[in-house]
Amino acid sequence: MKSLRLAAAVAAKDLRIELRGRHAAGLALPFAGTLLLAFGLALGPGRTLLEAAGPGLLWLALLFGSTLLARRAYEAEAEDGALEGLVLAPVDKASVFAGKAAAMAVELLVLEGSVLVMVAVLFGLPLGRGIAVIVAALALGTVGLAAVGSLFGVLAVVPRAREAALPLLVMPLATPVLVAGVKATELAVAGRGGEVGSWLGLLVAFDLVFLAAGTLVFEYLVEE
Amino acid sequence: MAEPAPTPRTETDTAPAISLTGVTRVFGSQPAIVGVRLVVGRGEVVLLRGANGAGKSTLLRVLATALSPTYGGGAVLGFDLVSERDEIRRRTELLTHRTRLYEELTAAENLRFTCALHGIGPGLVPAALERVGLAGTADQRVGGFSQGMRQRLAIARTTLRQAELLLLDEPYAGLDGHARKVVDEAVLAARDTGRTVVLATHEATRADLATRTMLIEAGRLHPNPGPPARSAVPR
């Protein structure tokens, strides 16, 4: 109960900071929009090609956006040494990880809603056909990306790590989310939602692995 | 909601506040503090003097368990520096020139978050703000605060809980007369309630607050450069 209260306090703090500063939204949303627009222009006007590329671009935009959100979540901690305050608090660091992951998941959901609309408009992706499956895949992908981002986002601000450490770690680690998300979305828009079970299962497994890893390892990443 | 009671440890209650044996901390290949041996009794107010880069901040951060010793070891309030970090953290407060505040949060919200971290009731926040003269700006975001106001807010945070060991790293840096007085009052309040304070500063003018003065030069501590500045007996 105490751990839950602490996680809620950390999440509320992060969301309040984001609501007031809109640092992450001001960075991740324009980035995702620009990425989708650039790919749309690069692929040309062919509707079939755009529709085929839509699921992949949707998840790529989310993956890149999630690394920006993760970085921003810890930049706020680093600005005036607040991270040291979290480290020196005699609390279970797993609760701090859970709180940061929860806040990042909420921010990712907002990003996903916007990116989904952009993909539907720019690439003519027929979302209506399998929207329930797409929402399920996005929800599961959100948990995984939030867990990985909150675990390794701290590397963007700790002095001993290099700035490039975050994307270099997160991108390869999040590949299962990318692959499973793209496959589930492709099947959903093709009207084959009944075949996505194994891909959603992969997303669930990824979520469990990285939630567990974050709970166990976060303390060692933030110390010193 | 009161702060959870620290683990009762009779043997630690009578242990020195600080006991270090040969503590060295190295960054890369550069030693920041070297072979520090130090014993500080309960209720002492120690003035740690030294030039910029002498190792004051590193020593205080080792004592606060923000850094582990590279070599050597010791105990703070009777708890081992490495294996009992959380027990030390429950009982110590570190104040540095980095105020650890969130710019997008208000003064009151910053303190309430500290309360949540330490399991303290948020009802203490208004009094803490009043104590440092920030009651009128409780609902203003810290991003608009001057350095002096931030430092006062950080001091207010230290008063939320009665830490047994107060570690103050250059607390006067960039402060005006009023804010300096707030720091002095926090030190005196700690001293008068029998708590231990280590006050690191490159200024020589605060010796009147201390029961003992120490000098650190190039990472080496000279624990007894002169006689005690005043009696250790609280006023």
Q: Considering DSSP H and I runs of 4 or more, what fraction of the residues of chain A is helical?
A: over 70%
Which runs of chain A of at least 5 residues are low in confidence (pLDDT < 50)? none
Class by helix and strand content of chain A?
mainly alpha
Helical residue percent band of chain B: 25-40%
Distance between the termini of chain B: 31 Å
Characterization of this structure:
The complex is a heterodimer of chains A (224) and B (235). Chain A has 224 residues and is mainly alpha-helical. Chain A has nine helices and no strands. Chain A has one domain. In chain A, helix 5 crosses helix 9. With 235 residues, chain B is α/β, with parallel strands linked by helices. Chain B is built from seven helices and ten strands. In chain B, helix 6 packs parallel to helix 7. The longest helix of chain B is centred in the last third of the chain and has 16 residues. At the A-B interface, helix 1 and helix 4 of A face helix 3 and helix 4 of B.
Quickly list its features:
heterodimer, A: 224 residues, mainly alpha, 82% helix, B: 235 residues, alpha/beta, Rossmann fold, six-stranded mixed sheet, 25% strand, disordered C terminus
